[in-house]
Amino acid sequence: MRSHSTSVMTGLFLTLGLVLLGSIITALLLSFSDIQESSLPYFSYAINVISLLIGGYVTGRKSGVRGWYYGGLAGLGYFLLVLLIGFLGFDAPLELNTLLYTIFAFVIAAIGGVFGVNSSNRR
Fold first, then answer.
1. Rounded CA separation 38/52 (Å)
2. What is the separation of C-alpha 71 from the centre of its chain, rounded to a whole number of angstroms?
3. How far, rounded to the nearest angstrom, does the alpha carbon of residue 102 sit from its chain's CA centroid?
4. Cα 96–102–104 angle (5° rounding)?
5. Segment 25-64, tens digit of pLDDT
């Protein structure tokens, strides 16, 4: 069980790191190029999807079994951390969109976990 929790934490921290890196790159692009701020939501969604897929992939690869479950847990942990920061730091309300984003994060990371398990079993 210890290796599964370690793989979930690894995927979670990797997802957070990739989101941070993507956000810095997006900020630099907005500052030093002609990209308009109106395209910021598209960058945000793309960064989150790519980060969740990679985090789920790494989680599934490290766990070796039930990639959808462990990858989904990493995605769920990521979203709950983002939700906690938004709720406590910015007083963001809990709405129906919150539930949809939670399901979205779980599904995207679970898909990454399935690919990760399948790539680890082919060795």
1. 23
2. 10
3. 11
4. 105
5. 999 999 999 988 898 999 999 999 999 999 999 999 998 8
Residue ranges in 64-122 assigned as alpha helix (H): 67-90, 96-120
Taken as a whole, the chain contains a residue count of 123
Per-residue pLDDT reduced to its tens digit, 102-120? 999 999 999 999 999 998 6
**DSSP secondary structure code for residue 55 in this structure:** H
Which pair of structure tokens corresponds to residue 51?
């980060």
Spatial contact of 75 and 52, defined as CB atoms under 8 Å apart: yes
H or E segment to which residue 20 belongs: helix 2-32
Q: How many Å apart are CA 74 and CA 12, to the nearest integer?
A: 5
Give the pTM: 0.90
Measured distance CA(8)–CA(13) in Å, rounded: 9
For residue 91, the one-letter residue type is D
Where in the sequence is the domain holding 51, given as residue range(s)?
A: 2-120
Q: What is the total count of domains within the chain?
A: 1
Q: Is pLDDT above 80 for 121? A: no
Token duo for residue 18: 């990739």
